């Protein structure tokens, strides 16, 4: 046991090569974030140039997430078939095609088509980036590296906001096309560059390519002993014979991923059922906090709060992007030290308070029109946009992806993650495509009061149904969910009081 702690502690799990691979694999998320951020400003110019109405604007904003369903629901099976690395490259190629179509679009129809293609790439990117990071890293740094896609999304959004601000000076006919088309350049570079990365060792083991998996583990682990120990754990989780030098797969290469839907939805074991509720639930609630409404429609919110000129609105959205990026970096530094649950629940507390105050401020501003709005209401509205972004970014944003990528058993991870992303995109599309209609129906302040109430429900869900996973090897996470929901309701903290590992200090599975 002491040997195992020595292997897992100290420098174990902090291999810089593993971190570098996770960063490169997460760059695909920058492209997705850029597309989201740049569209928030580009819509102001598209509406003017193409004479689109509010319905078309909502469709353009939300169609990305509808089409992401196609990508997310196929990405899991594709990544089980061709591997995690090639799936990242495929996502980058799809992004390239979508960005090129949008940048060259002569009319609304072609613009919408390009947005649809990019949406498929979004589905692939959201599924594969955290899964690759989770599978190539160790338990000690897994929370940080699986949060990298979220910081990359935020950085991409910030770059999109900056592109809006800089390219707004171009003639109207070129400005928004340049904003949307620029995403094609890094997509092409990433599609080629990612091929230099190693494949996920867990995928290689599932394919029966154990020697190759060991070679990768020795690259991403600090010691050969740690690599051997992790390989033993992965082989047991993958259903391989872990005794002796000759290891035979119970599933032939190429059969990986078959039967997963049956195990997840038709005949799940009690722990798997609880895992699915937790993993799908965090995706369901993420966008019900209203983040998409704030990020995508922040120009309208700032305009409603009294910021008048287009230049001032775009500058304020850059501030939103900076805030989001800084606080996600904070989350990455804390998630493996503090744990998932404290950060997530603290984040939701800040979200509820911020949304309630934002609702108050915007309600006062709206009811003061057409007269001059009270200065305190304007300041409160603007300030709470930033506190909301900070609260979301320090917990709910990154931990949704980290938590949902690590809780699935190895055999279910890729396709389970793809279903989670599909749920995430449905909720994203639902919010982004209905927000304008919602705030016209219940006022913009009322819309944020509604989001505050839903965030409170999300806090109750996570508190009772989502146990802590900090520091657990991926192969042990299923054990964490072995306790029933009623037992966790009586004592939520007790759900994590389980043995540290199924592998003894010598690297052999315990009976």
From TrEMBL:
<feature type="domain" description="Major facilitator superfamily (MFS) profile">
    <location>
        <begin position="21"/>
        <end position="470"/>
    </location>
</feature>
<keyword id="KW-0813">Transport</keyword>
<feature type="transmembrane region" description="Helical">
    <location>
        <begin position="174"/>
        <end position="197"/>
    </location>
</feature>
<feature type="transmembrane region" description="Helical">
    <location>
        <begin position="145"/>
        <end position="168"/>
    </location>
</feature>
<feature type="transmembrane region" description="Helical">
    <location>
        <begin position="377"/>
        <end position="403"/>
    </location>
</feature>
<protein>
    <recommendedName>
        <fullName>Major facilitator superfamily (MFS) profile domain-containing protein</fullName>
    </recommendedName>
</protein>
<dbReference type="InterPro" id="IPR036259">
    <property type="entry name" value="MFS_trans_sf"/>
</dbReference>
<keyword id="KW-1133">Transmembrane helix</keyword>
<feature type="transmembrane region" description="Helical">
    <location>
        <begin position="57"/>
        <end position="76"/>
    </location>
</feature>
<dbReference type="InterPro" id="IPR003663">
    <property type="entry name" value="Sugar/inositol_transpt"/>
</dbReference>
<dbReference type="InterPro" id="IPR020846">
    <property type="entry name" value="MFS_dom"/>
</dbReference>
<dbReference type="Pfam" id="PF00083">
    <property type="entry name" value="Sugar_tr"/>
</dbReference>
<keyword id="KW-0762">Sugar transport</keyword>
<feature type="transmembrane region" description="Helical">
    <location>
        <begin position="88"/>
        <end position="106"/>
    </location>
</feature>
<feature type="transmembrane region" description="Helical">
    <location>
        <begin position="313"/>
        <end position="335"/>
    </location>
</feature>
<dbReference type="GO" id="GO:0015293">
    <property type="term" value="F:symporter activity"/>
</dbReference>
<feature type="transmembrane region" description="Helical">
    <location>
        <begin position="112"/>
        <end position="133"/>
    </location>
</feature>
<feature type="transmembrane region" description="Helical">
    <location>
        <begin position="17"/>
        <end position="37"/>
    </location>
</feature>
<dbReference type="InterPro" id="IPR050814">
    <property type="entry name" value="Myo-inositol_Transporter"/>
</dbReference>
<keyword id="KW-0472">Membrane</keyword>
<keyword id="KW-0769">Symport</keyword>
<feature type="transmembrane region" description="Helical">
    <location>
        <begin position="347"/>
        <end position="365"/>
    </location>
</feature>
<dbReference type="GO" id="GO:0016020">
    <property type="term" value="C:membrane"/>
</dbReference>
<dbReference type="InterPro" id="IPR005829">
    <property type="entry name" value="Sugar_transporter_CS"/>
</dbReference>
<comment type="similarity">
    <text>Belongs to the major facilitator superfamily. Sugar transporter (TC 2.A.1.1) family.</text>
</comment>
<keyword id="KW-0812">Transmembrane</keyword>
<dbReference type="InterPro" id="IPR005828">
    <property type="entry name" value="MFS_sugar_transport-like"/>
</dbReference>
<feature type="transmembrane region" description="Helical">
    <location>
        <begin position="441"/>
        <end position="465"/>
    </location>
</feature>
């Amino acid at each position: 046991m002491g040997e195992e702690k020595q292997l897992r502690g100290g420098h174990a799990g902090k291999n810089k090569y593993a971190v570098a691979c996770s960063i490169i694999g997460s760059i695909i998320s920058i492209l997705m974030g850029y597309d989201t951020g740049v569209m928030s400003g580009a819509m102001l110019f598209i509406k003017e140039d193409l004479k689109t109405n509010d319905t078309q604007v909502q469709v353009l904003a939300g169609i990305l997430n509808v089409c992401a369903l196609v990508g997310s629901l196929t990405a899991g099976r594709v990544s089980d078939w061709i591997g995690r690395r090639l799936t990242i490259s495929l996502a980058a190629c799809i992004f390239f095609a979508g960005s090129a179509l949008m940048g060259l679009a002569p009319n609304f129809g072609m613009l919408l088509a390009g947005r649809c293609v990019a949406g498929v790439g979004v589905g692939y990117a959201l599924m594969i980036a955290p899964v690759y990071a989770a599978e190539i890293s160790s338990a000690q740094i897994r929370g940080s590296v699986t949060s990298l896609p979220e910081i990359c999304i935020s950085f991409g959004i910030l770059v999109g906001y900056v592109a809006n601000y800089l390219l707004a000076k171009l003639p109207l006919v070129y400005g928004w096309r340049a904003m949307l088309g620029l995403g094609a350049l890094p997509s092409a570079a990433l599609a080629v560059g990612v091929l230099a990365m190693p494949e996920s060792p867990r995928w290689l083991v599932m394919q029966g390519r154990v020697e190759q998996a060991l070679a990768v583990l020795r690259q991403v682990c600090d010691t050969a002993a740690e690599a051997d120990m992790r390989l033993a754990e992965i082989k047991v989780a993958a259903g391989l014979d872990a005794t002796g030098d000759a290891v035979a797969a119970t599933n032939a290469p190429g059969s990986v991923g078959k039967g997963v839907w049956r195990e997840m939805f038709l005949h799940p074991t009690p722990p798997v059922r609880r895992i699915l509720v937790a993993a799908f639930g965090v995706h369901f609630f993420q966008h019900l906090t209203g983040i998409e409404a704030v990020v995508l429609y922040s120009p309208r919110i700032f305009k409603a709060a009294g910021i008048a000129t287009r230049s001032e609105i775009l500058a304020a959205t850059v501030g939103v992007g900076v805030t989001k990026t800084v606080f996600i970096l904070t989350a990455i530094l804390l998630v493996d030290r503090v744990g998932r649950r404290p950060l997530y629940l603290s984040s939701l507390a800040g979200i509820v308070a911020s949304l309630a105050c934002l609702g108050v401020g915007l309600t006062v501003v709206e009811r003061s029109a057409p007269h001059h709005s009270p200065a305190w209401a304007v300041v409160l509205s603007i300030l709470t946009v930033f506190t909301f972004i900070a609260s979301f970014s320090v917990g709910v944003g990154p931990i949704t992806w980290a938590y949902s990528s690590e809780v699935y058993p190895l055999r279910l991870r890729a396709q389970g993650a793809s279903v989670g992303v599909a749920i995430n995109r449905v909720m994203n599309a639902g919010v982004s495509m209905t927000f304008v209609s919602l705030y016209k129906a219940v006022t913009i302040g009322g819309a944020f009061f509604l989001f505050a109430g839903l965030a409170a429900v999300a806090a109750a869900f996570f508190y009772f149904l989502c146990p802590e996973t900090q520091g657990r090897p991926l192969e042990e996470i299923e054990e964490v969910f072995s306790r029933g929901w009623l037992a966790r309701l009586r004592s939520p903290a007790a759900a994590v009081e389980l043995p540290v590992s199924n592998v003894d200090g010598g690297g052999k599975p315990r009976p």
